[in-house]
Structure formats: C-alpha cells, structure tokens
Amino acid sequence: MVCCELVRVTAPVWSCQSCYHVFHLNCIKKWARSPASQADGQSGWRCPACQNVSAHVPNTYTCFCGKVKNPEWSRNEIPHSCGEVCRKKQPGQDCPHSCNLLCHPGPCPPCPAFMTKTCECGRTRHTVRCGQAVSVHCSNPCENLLNCGQHHCAELCHGGQCQPCRIILNQVCYCGSTSRDVLCGTDVGKSDGFGDFGCLKICGKDLKCGNHTCSQVCHPQPCQPCPRLPHLVRCCPCGQTPLSQLLELGSSGRKTCMDPVPSCGKVCGKPLPCGSLDFIHTCEKLCHEGDCGPCSRTSVISCRCSFRTKELPCTSLKSEADATFMCDKRCNKKRLCGRHKCNEICCVDKEHKCPLICGRKLRCGLHRCEEPCHRGNCQSCWQASFDELTCHCGASVIYPPVPCGTRPPECTQTCARVHECDHPVYHSCHSEEKCPPCTFLTQKWCMGKHELRSNIPCHLADISCGLPCSATLPCGMHKCQRLCHKGECLVDEACKQPCTTPRADCGHPCMAPCHPSSPCPMTACKAKIELQCECGRRKEMMICSEASSTYQRIAAISIASKITDMQLGDSVEISKLITKKEIHQARLECDEECLALERKKRLAEAFHISEDSDPFNVRSSGSKFSDSLKDDARKDLKFVSDIEKEMEALVETVNKGKNSKKSHCFPPMNRDHRRIIHDLAQVYGLESVSYDSEPKRNVVVTAVRGKSICPPSTLTCVLEREMQSRPPPPIPHHRHQTDKNPASSNLQKIAKEPVIDYFDVQD
Q1: How are beta strands 528-532 and 661-665 bridged, if at all?
Q2: Which domains does the chain have, with CATH numbers?
Q3: Which DSSP symbol is given to 217?
Q4: Short-list 510, 515, 512, 544, CA closest to 527
Q5: What is the pLDDT of residues 633-688, one digit of tens each?
Q6: Hey, how many other C-beta atoms are within 10 angstroms of the C-beta on 423?
Q7: What is the model's pTM?
Q8: 620: helix, strand or coil
Q9: Do the record's keywords include Chaperone (predicted)?
C-alpha cells in the first residue's frame, strides 16, 4: 500500500497491531513521517490499511510477538518470527490465559480453556469458553433495587444498570403553591417533609412576627425571622449611622417590627442602577425607608457595538434593554468564509459566521456545494451512482457504488467505433465523443493541384505546397500572386494588380489598377529612369514624367530660338526635337567638375600621356560620393566626420591585425543617419546591416581584409573644397565648324545660356 516491492523473508518488517498488515520497516517509517499520514484532530499517524492511529513511529525490527529484535530467518520457521511460544494476551478481554501458539502473524485465536461465569444478576453460574465474549443471562427476574431506593427491577436478568423507576408520583413545592407529576426517584433527598422542590416564586408565608410575609424565593422550611425585628435592625435606613448613636441624640427606641426605623437626616447616597462605571449615580433624598426614587440626572449610553453614544434622562432607563441602542453603522469585516462582508447594522458578533450557502460547483462538475459558505476547497460530492460504469466497448467496468464525477475506466482494447477512413486503428478505446485524428501517412494533392505531396497525415484536408497560385484571374491579364490556397482567388472583389500595358509615349507599363474593360488612364508616368550628363560622370535617378517635362521645356526653348532664324529666312530642322527617341535621350548638364576633368583629358592627349600613368589623378579624383549622400552630409558634417573616423579606424585594424573580419556596432539612430552610414559603407567597401526595430534600430558595419579600403579623400574634405570659393572657369574657345547635328548642338548651347521664356512654357 505504500510501496510496490515484495516483502521478502529477510527484509525488516513492521506489522500493524490492529489489522495485522505487514509492511517494510523503512517504507512505513517514510509513510509515518509524510504529511499524508497525519491523523485529523489527533496526534499520531494512520496505518495505510486500517487507518488506526499510532502515537510512535516504529524504529526497530521485531518478531510478531515482540520478544526478539532482528530475528534471523530459518527455513523451518515462519519468516519474521522468533520460533518461540507467542505468550500474548487477548486484548480487551478478562481472559487470564496467554496464547500457546508459536510466534505467528495475524491475531491470536480465541482462548480454548473453559471457565465458570455467573449470570448478570449474579444468581446462577454457567460453564463457558474463556474467550467467549457473550455475557450469560438466566431466566429469573433481576430484583435489584432501582434508583428511587423503594422499588425493585421487574425485568429478566440483564446486563448493565437497571432502567429508572417508571412509577409516576405527584410532588408539591416548598411553599405549597405549585404541584407536578414526576417519575419516582426525581429529586430524591430534597424533601423537607412538606414539599419536594422549589417553584422559583416568592414564598409569601407569614413570618413568626405575624405582621410580615416571607419575601424569599420558594425554599425549604423554616422561613427566616422577620428582618425588621428590633434586635436585627442596628442602623438607620441609609446604613450610615448606628441606631445607638441616634438613641443618644434623642430618637425613640423601637419595640416591635412595626415601629419605624429612625432616620439620620443625611443624604441617602445609595447607588442607583443608572450611571456608568466612571460615574455612579446615587440617591439624593434624605435617609428614608423603602426603595429609592427615580434619578434626576442623565446617563450616557453606548450602542451595541460601542461605536456611538447618546445622552438620555435616567428616568427613561427602566430596564437593561433601555441602556443600549442600535446605531446605523454597517460592519465592514469579512465573514469566516473570506468571500463576503458582514454588512450587519451595529454588529456585535466576533466570529462573523456566514449564513449564505456556498453554491460553488463541486469537482464532479454536476452538483453545487450545499454547505454554509466556507474557506478553502469544497468537499467531494456525496452523490453516488449504483449503476455499473463501463468504457465505450464494455470491456472495463467500475462496479457500484460509483462516486459522482468518476471518469469511465481506461480500456486497453483497440477502439471499435466506425471511423471515416479505412486505415488501421492504433488508438485505444476512449470515452470522448470524437476519435483522435488519423495519422496514417498518405499522398494528397495540394489545394491548387500544383503537386502531389507525400507523407501527409490522413486527417489533414487542406494542404498548401508553398508555391504561387498562378491561376488566371477573371480580368484575363494577371495571375494570382497568393501562395497555394483554398477556394476562389478573388472573392467579392476585383483585380487590383497594376496594369502592364506599355504607355504610348514612354513605353513604361501603365501601373494603374487593373482595368480590363477600359483604356489606360492619362496619368503621369511614375517609373524611375537614370539620367547622365554628356561626359557620363553625373548620374541621377529621376521620375519619367519629370524628365519628359524637362526635355519638353528645353525643346520648346530651342524651337523658339530657331523661329527667330526662320524669320530671317533660314531653314531649320525640328523633327529630332519632338521624337520619342530624343525625349528618352534627355541628359543632365555637365557641371564645373566635368569641365575640369575634360581639360585634364585634353592636356593628357596633348602631352601624349598614357592612361595607365594617370599623373593628373583623373580616375582617382572622380567623386565616389553621390549627390544625395553629399546633400545629406551637408546637414550634419560633424556626424559624418565621426562616422568616417570610425570606418577608417575599422579598415586599418583589419588590414594590420590578425583577424580577416572585424565589426563595429553603431548606437541606435534615426533613419537619415542610418542611410548615411549605409552609403558611406559602400564607398569604404564595408558590409552594413540594420538590426532591431524602431526606436532601437542600429547599424552594424563589417570590414573584410582585401575588400575594404579607405578612399583617397574623405567626404568631409570633398564638401569643404566645394564650399570654398572657386576661381572663375576659363573662357572656352570654340572652333568655327559646320554643325553636323544642329539640334543637339543647339540644345547644349541653350542648356548653358540663360533661360529665355519666349512662350511662357509651363512644366
């Protein structure tokens, strides 16, 4: 019951003296010290089998009779016994004999000896077995004296005390005003010769003086002498002055009980029932006989809970009930249940028991607790079923009584229910309504019928292959871009993919939301194109519509200048200014740095300098920094300078150190600063990656040996040179040659000359 091991013949054991179960000694020690073995409301531990409470934990291994410690095992004797005579006495019996069997487990057998026993009334004797626990009765009347001391028992020979006397008598009280019918033997020894009990009324008998009656409660005779007799009264009515002193002052002496008691003339001063513990009210009248009159003062009384007080005249306090009142304060203390507040008005309760019913659901989940509201967990449900509880197939059974909330028994048989598929069943019989899903591996098509998937559990119905759907949408122009899915591609909505029809003017896609039944709308093209200057040094990304409008403005200016030539009689060709090809060939203007590079190239050609030597640093002086990077850097030069110092130090550390890679983590910063770091990392040949999310997003740059290199001039130096004042450029000398391409030459001239707005052309 406390372990799963067998009790072997050589193992130390302990045997319960109540149920005689045998346990391992070490196991019963652990059980006795565990909290589960503690007896409720008693000091000790419970036997796991019979729940008998023992006070001491066993520490030694003894034989069954308890005479030998650590008995040795012998093949010819019972295991764990000493082999000697038991000699144990029968517990709870008057048998003087001891057990004559060898040391044995279990209880001792009944004593086989015979002895003579008397019957219960003691008049006859009988021979019976010593171990017989049944008492002996004869057929004669008992005749023992009853509790009244007058009558004898008329029942047959019986055990125990006789029943009280059943004869009914009539008794009179001491004062003679009340009588009652009682069983014989009630209030024996209280009779005074006239009455047998006190009726709690005033006696009222005439005293010996003949003038007064007894004022005591009904009592045995005789009555006390008259309290007003002259030899009993020794003080004035208020008790402050002896009568002997008043006689000396001239008061007349008393001869009978009817004579008045002389008054001393002082204030009475007897304590009145009103007032409080701190201030006791006294009688203010002069010394007098009889009861004191009503008090003329006021008393402060408290409510039941002592929270409030009020002042009342003492005359209104006629009883103890008038000395208290109820206030309107509600008790805010928690009741014993710990769930509800007391909320009683003027509460005087100390325990605050909760009168509500608990009502919480029990562990069975079917019934609610019907006990008064309490702390802690509710007890187990007392309901029980007397029907057999079986599993679904009926192989396992729990026999009644079955406690409420008991789950059906577990069954090891294979589930015998009808299943949706024909695959083998591997799960056991269960009490749940739904069977576990079938996990047999099968082949199934994905939802879009793209491929046949293998090793798919049988219960999985909708399988996605992870490939794009690629089904043609209702518009007929696009295909579904969702991953393999179930059902229709578009449900109650139209295709919103961008239109791919080429534009008539620039050839870029329309990019408007899909419009299969209507022509493409006339909107500005948002595609980005790359524009270059004549020498190819400057590059810039521009929106197609903005580039076209810029070229149209320049072409309009060029046409306006040629119109002036036409007015002079010259013929001009403008076809190349208005073709789409020329619009696509819109270029940027060369800046001063482009002109400087062109001069250096012409000087190198004039002096026959090869391209490999590069004495003017033409190739290396080409700016590696984009215009957008320069614009961002001009906003915060100090930040750019610090970043370049970090990158230069990182590149030098990698080139001079042992490691081929080294990283540097910049602190979190905003998006503009992170963009500057990414652009500078490309110039320095560093790898840059952004980590984390806003606002903790930061950049980590990594330098690689052989790939990362510092540029010949930093971005800070380039910006400082550009901000310094430049000398005016040299005057170009143009040769008078025939212009083979008048349209392009005029376009370049116009681009360099000040813009003349002839026709007020708008962008």
Answers
A1: unpaired
A2: 441-471 (no CATH), 632-711 (3.30.1370.50)
A3: B
A4: 544
A5: 888 888 999 999 999 999 999 888 888 888 999 999 998 899 999 999 988 889 99
A6: 13
A7: 0.37
A8: coil
A9: no
